[in-house]
Amino acid sequence: MLRSRSAVLFSGFFLAALFPAAAFADAVLTVAPSAGTVANGSSFTADVNISNVADLYDYQFDLNFNPAVLQATAVLEGSFLTSGGATFFLPGTIDDSAGTIDFNADSLLTAISGVSGSGMLLEIEFSAIAPGSSAISIPDNSDLILQDSNGALLSAAAPVGGQVQVQGDTTAGVPEPSMRWLLTAALLACCILAGNNRLRRVPVEI
Q1: What range does the domain containing 141 cover?
Q2: Of the candidates 102, 53, 50, which has an alpha carbon nearest to the alpha carbon of residue 75?
C-alpha cells in the first residue's frame, strides 16, 4: 500500500515537472473592451475572448446587456475556433426587449483535436440608443459549456464582463431659446424699425 501511494505521488511530481502549472489553469472568458464610452446613436462592437484554454472543440454561453441603453444587432463568429478547421456556428438569439443573447454556440466539425491558447470566440454588434450605462456580461446562471475534442468538460473561471457608458447628444447641453426671449427680441426689433421710420419722416409745410 505504501509503495503504490509513493508511486502515485512520484507520478504526480513527474507530470507536474513536465507540464507547468499554468497549463492547468482554468480557461477565462472576457468581454472586451472591459470599459468604454460611446456616443448616443452610434454603433460599436464588443468581443468575447478566451484565454488559457487547451483543446477547445466547442462552446456555448449566454450574454446579457441593458436594453434601455443598448440594442444588439448581430452576432458574428470569431477567429479562434475557425483556426482549427471547419466549424458549425450558431449565433445567439437576440432579444432586445429583455437584453439577452441566448445560446451562442460554435463547434469544430472534422478537426482531430481542439484549439489551444487565446483568441476571439465571437463578436457582437451593438447600437447605443440612450444615455446611460450597460454591462455586457455572461450571467452567473448561464449554461456555460466548454468541451474538448473527447467531449469532456473544460474547467472555466468566472467570466469577466465589460461596461459601456453611452454619452448624451452633443446638442443636449445647448438650451433652445425660450419663447419669451423670442417675443422680446421681436418687440425690440419693431421698436428699432419704428424709430428709424420716425427719424426718416420729412416735415411737410402747409
Answers
A1: 19-167
A2: 102
Residues 168, 131 contacting (CB under 8 angstroms): yes
- pTM for this prediction: 0.71
Number of domains in the chain: 1
What gap in Å lies between CA 75 and CA 77, rounded to an integer?
Answer: 7
DSSP class of residue 67? T
Note the residue count of the chain: 206
Sequence letter at residue 91: P
Indicate which CATH number applies to the domain containing 151.
2.60.40.680
**Where do the DSSP E strands lie in the chain?**
28-32, 35-39, 43-56, 58-64, 70-77, 87-90, 93-95, 100-108, 115-128, 132-136, 145-147, 162-167
Query: Which ranges constitute the DSSP H helices of the chain?
Result: 2-18, 179-200
pLDDT digits (tens, 9 = 90+) for 138-151: 997 778 999 999 99
